[in-house]
Design a protein that fits this description.
Largest sheet: 6 strands, parallel
Radius of gyration: 18 Å
Structural class: alpha/beta
Number of strands: 6
Distance between the termini: 30 Å
CATH superfamily: Aldolase class I
Strand order of the largest sheet: 1-2-3-4-5-6
CATH class: Alpha Beta
């Protein structure tokens, strides 16, 4: 997969702190099992000894999620990013059992709380219960409510990672210690600069850059996220191919918005 290798190498050479393949940006839901395994193996090979690898393991069944977690462990990944059950509205007991099965594999787990794309919300009290599992170490918080961050820190010992691109600054000011970013696939160096500015308390500079990026970052919270990333990469001369159905090509209006932000940078 030379195109994937080239993309991951570019991200690493741009200074990112880690790679998280086969999440939403990686269109995991449209990949055949053999394709998904090849993606994970390829990214693991490129990342090896350079940056940490955290594999997205979401899938319709717990057995499938466990399988991807086991593969990640075999390949030397530093952890996995795991959604709750995604194909129906589970009971809390089922959510807990799902994470317990992942936990049994023995890799560090980032719980991915994304109530927009799943039927499950994981508020701080539920995260506190999940914390009883040995390997759950962090939460990628995508609820859109930055108040959750301080509440999670008050009620758990979990690391909170910003999961919403267009709440990055607000999340870090509220106590998030990391960022799993989508639009960094298009503008990795600028995304890293924004992250470091906030991290180093250079807030006026951070807000200035953030406001320039927001028209692009806001797509992270929409169903057009993947189309925007792929169009953006094509626009900057690093094409990675079209999205897979049911996703269609980005509309002309959205293309103009994305192109306007990228050209201004």
């Amino acid at each position: 997969m030379p195109g994937l290798r080239q993309h991951i190498n570019w991200l690493i050479e741009s200074g990112v702190d880690g790679i998280a393949p086969t999440g939403s940006c990686g269109e995991y839901a449209t990949l055949k099992d053999e394709e998904r395994e090849l993606v994970i193996r390829t990214v693991a090979e490129v990342c090896h000894g350079r940056v940490p690898l955290v594999v997205g393991v979401a899938a319709p069944s717990t057995a499938q999620v466990v399988r991807w977690t086991e593969l990640a462990k075999t390949l030397g990944a530093q952890g996995v990013m795991a959604l709750p059950p995604v194909n129906y509205r589970p009971t809390w007991e089922e959510v807990y059992a799902h994470y317990a099965a992942i936990d049994a594999v023995g890799l560090p787990i980032i719980v991915y709380n994304n109530p927009y794309d799943t039927a499950v919300d994981l508020p701080p009290a539920r995260l506190h219960e999940l914390e009883a599992l040995k390997h759950i170490q962090a939460v990628k918080e995508f609820s859109g409510d930055v108040r959750r961050i301080t509440e999670i820190q008050e009620q758990t010992h979990l690391e909170v990672i910003a999961g919403t691109d267009d709440l990055l600054v607000e999340s870090m000011l509220s106590g998030a210690s990391g960022w799993i970013a989508g639009m960094a696939n298009i503008v990795p160096e600028i995304s890293l600069r924004l992250y470091r500015l906030v991290q180093n308390h250079r807030h006026p500079e951070a807000w200035e850059l953030y406001r320039k990026l927001l028209p692009l970052l806001r797509y992270d919270s929409t169903p057009r996220l993947v189309q925007v990333i792929k169009y953006g990469l094509e626009y900057i001369g690093r094409p990675v191919g079209p999205t897979r159905p049911p996703r269609l090509a980005l509309s002309l209006d959205d293309q103009k918005t994305v192109a306007g932000v990228l050209s201004s940078l």
